[in-house]
UniProtKB/TrEMBL annotation:
Transmembrane segment boundaries: none
Record's protein name: T6SS immunity protein Tli4 family protein
Signal peptide range: none
Superkingdom of the organism of origin: Bacteria
Domain Tle cognate immunity protein 4 N-terminal: 59-189
Length: 500
């Protein structure tokens, strides 16, 4: 169980290595002429007498933006959560996380970056006050040039939290700002709690959405599994992720089945296919998830491997819609020591199908109240120097300026309220001779990281308003809107002075 918490979990049992080439692919297959053409809500197989006590009491479990009903006796096993950075919660583990932070720092100090004059891999340690912790930045290995690893180590009440990222060097400030944003939106959550706010359920915690969250920016990966106490060899798993906007049908179960059926790779695959029992193969819809394809099969007995059930639904999802993601739902029987077929299945074919239909048909979007999260003004002010990248929501009402403004002439200080989108920087470049003749002056729109430099002070606002505009504040008639979108007269990228 500890291993599943700290390493990537591919959910449910892993098929023995010598079966993987065929049965991972064959999972997409089925050939049952008697199945209906579409299983929107399957004709539910009635629970057999042996199963009724198992489902007499159920519990609702939330994962990501969704929830599912499982037997109350089922064990919940979480895999990795990426929202959009990796987040791990250590219950009652504040001291453990501090030790891990120190170990990470010592490791970075002990190694040299060979392409950076053999300096230590450690670049920076930054202490954070809200919540208390530190962010450690270093090169991602001794051969790294622009690859970084940035870990944040924090304490939330008695729990330890680690947020990890692997950005490029030019994404450093934006990543640190995102780590700070994530940890400040995290709160502890017992397994039984089903939050009503918009956000993501992860193991032991809930991550509240930012105000005015742009759903196009959401890169959420959630893995969760369930073990049935009454049938311990039966494992079910769910994985949700952003839908692929580029030819998602090519990744569907239907497409995979078509490929393997038309051209089995080996004679062994042909033989295994002939001996595999298929129960169902068809499109599958669960509530608003309409892009699914379902395959239910039972692998044959092999040498040293028992016959086992291998069920799967894949939803290709809808690109840029976090409520209709790519989803992969699997169930296997005969699982022991994390290998399917290591023991005999404790369930009959009919019982497995009944359990599958019963649980999968309850997967749904978690309803929310739509109430906005509490603003920073409702509690302690965020410290001056707080960072927020272009495109993210402002975490604290006040005066902000681009973090790199020290390299620019004049001031680019701007006033933002909590929840407003942090905009791009707009500046005016030097016109070319032709542009001077036409009376034009180019403007440039670039992403940046904003830094909080002052709080909401009416007198300060009045003083700034009375000052003449600086180069960065003057703009053509059509200028950058507050949500970061460009209008006529602008181009995005580097100014001529910056381009190489």
């Amino acid at each position: 169980m500890e291993l599943l918490k700290r390493t990537p979990m591919y959910m449910t049992a892993i098929v023995r290595w010598y079966l993987i080439p065929f049965f991972v692919a064959i999972l997409t297959l089925t050939a049952c002429n008697g199945s209906p053409s579409e299983w929107k809500t399957p004709n539910m197989t009635a629970l057999m007498p042996r199963l009724k006590p198992v489902f007499e009491k159920t519990k609702t479990v939330c994962f990501g933006r969704f929830m599912v009903d499982v037997p109350a006796s089922a064990t919940v096993v979480w895999g990795d959560a990426i929202v959009p950075l990796g987040v791990s919660i250590y219950p009652n583990g504040v001291d453990e996380v501090r030790e891990l932070a120190q170990k990470f720092i010592v490791d970075l100090k002990s190694k040299k970056a060979i392409y950076h004059d053999h300096v230590p891999l450690l670049i920076e340690e930054t202490n954070v006050s809200q919540p208390e912790g530190k962010i450690v930045t270093g090169y991602d290995g001794f051969e790294a040039i622009n690859d970084l690893k940035i870990n944040g180590y924090f304490g939330i009440n008695n729990d330890g939290v680690i947020v990890n990222a692997r950005p490029m060097k030019n994404e450093r400030d934006e990543t640190i700002a995102l780590i700070n944003s994530i940890v400040r939106r995290l709160r502890q959550r017992p397994e039984s709690e089903i939050p009503t706010e918009s956000g993501n359920c992860i193991e032991h915690a809930f991550l509240v959405d930012e105000p005015a969250m742009n759903k196009d920016d959401l890169l959420e990966h959630i893995r969760i599994g369930f073990r049935l106490r009454e049938f311990p060899d039966t494992h079910l798993s769910i994985y949700v992720a952003p839908a692929n906007p580029n030819n998602p049908e090519d990744e569907s179960l239907k497409a995979q089945w078509k490929r393997i059926k038309e051209d089995p790779a080996t004679p062994e695959e042909k033989k295994a296919l002939a001996n595999t029992k298929f129960f169902r193969e068809s499109p599958r819809q669960i509530y608003d998830w309409k892009t699914g394809y379902e395959v239910l099969m039972r692998a044959p007995d092999e040498e040293h491997v028992h016959s086992y059930h291998d069920f799967q639904i894949k939803f290709t999802g809808v690109p840029h819609d976090p409520f209709k993601p790519y989803a992969d739902v699997q169930l296997q029987t005969g699982v022991a020591n994390n290998a399917a077929g290591a023991t005999k299945s404790s369930l009959t074919d009919e019982e497995v199908i009944a359990i599958w239909d019963k649980i999968t048909s309850t997967i749904r979007v978690r309803p929310t109240s739509g109430a906005p999260m509490k603003s920073a003004e409702a509690g302690t002010r965020l410290p001056l120097g707080e960072l927020a990248a272009t495109g993210r929501s402002c975490p604290q009402t006040g005066w902000w300026e681009p973090d790199e403004s020290r390299n620019r002439e004049g001031s680019q200080r701007q006033y933002f309220k909590t929840g407003e989108r942090m905009p791009h920087v707009v500046s005016l470049g030097e016109p070319s001779i032709w542009q001077k003749l036409k009376g034009e002056r180019p403007s440039y729109r670039t992403a940046t990281v904003w830094k909080l430099v002052s709080y909401d002070d009416a007198s300060a606002r009045a003083n700034v308003a009375a000052q003449p505009p600086t180069m960065a504040q003057i703009s053509p008639p059509s200028i950058l809107t507050n949500d970061g979108t460009a209008e006529d007269g602008q181009s995005e990228g580097k100014s001529p002075e910056q381009k190489g």
